[in-house]
Amino acid sequence: MSDATAAPLHIVVLAGGSGKRMKSAHPKLLHPLFFKPMVHFILDTVMALPHRSVSLVVGKGEREYRDQCREYAELAIVRQEAPLGTADAVRALEPFLASQQGNVLIVNGDSVMLTVHSLTELLAKHVATGADSTIGRQADEKGGAHVVCFRIRALLGALAEIRPSGPEMEFDLHDAVETISARGGAAAEYRFADPTETMGIDDQNELWLAETVLRERFNGELMRKGVALQDSRSTLIDPRCRIHADVRIEAGCTVINSVLEAGVVAENFCRIVDSEIGPGSLLRQGTCAEEARVGRDCRVGPYAHLRPGSNLEDSVWIGNFVEIKNASLGAGTRAAHLSFIGDAHVGRNVVLGCGFITCNSSGRPLKQRTIIEDDVFIGSASQAIAPVKMGAGSFIATGTSVTDDVPPDSFVISRGRQVTKPGYAKKYGKAKSPSAPR
Fold first, then answer.
1. Is 231 in the same domain as 91?
2. Among 219, 143, 211, which Cα is nearest to 178's?
């Protein structure tokens, strides 16, 4: 038979190791890797295979595993009471496996580089050869198994005969393969062409190496699809992202769980998290967008901060050191620099001068809102003392504090009259410049 799904397949992921070399109180497989817990990589891979069941064998941190793996509704989590080796971990599933038929695929939980393609080939070889056990190894490797597929009946018989070995007296799953062969069982091998697929992760350095490989693998896929990455090595892009062709991402950027439409340019050191960036928009250097939506043909930054709830319609211009929070800005609106716009609705074609601030907090948890209708001009160094509304077409003079609602097409000025007193500078004394350093 050449069909890898010809016999029922059960999958076991081993996560019971203590992970001592990670030097951490957290379970090894729950350390973050490429934007998600390490264990999610192997679970996503094996669950893409046709299967009857998937089980995760854990040791310490069972509660943490259950919390971090809640999204895998079909996953069965089984506890290994003591870390006595890989074969002992499989023994925790003996009551379940004894009632099943077909094959069981056993993989280490830190084998995060495994691909669906390679595992499908391994399973096909196992079924086609009629083997009792099939070991997956690197192409040039002579040693131990990284992935093993067993005929369930053969595995259960071998588990009963395994004895502890090694300095820590553990029950090694590789001994099950040797036991099956010694009893005359058929054995097969599958060689992974890509050596990175069998990488394990035992310490923080290997975790970093794995993330480097995953990043290069994913960034390579993006570039082959037409995404321009100025420096793939310094660019972190979450695989959950949807990035269209003709997007350019410069060095040092981080993009997490976001959508970048065609023609977007993200200059150096931008950070984009849980956001949507519309076609043709430019994020200038150092811009940060979190839970934000940017429309078509916008210009944002440099060093702008779009906080959660920011919504920019098409052709909005946000300049350097502008911060926006829980606010919508209509098409064509401009805030060139050094402003804070929070808890506000800003209409179309509004001009917000340098240093404009919405004063949205009265010290209470509930923030007050500012409404600025279409075609309003607000001069530099002005404030809106919320709650307040500025009617369409209004002109707010420089340095004005708007405390009351403004009717449409009004001119508003609230700054005090300038008072000049000639000669008074001598009376109060001029501030002396500090001496130049010698």
1. no
2. 143
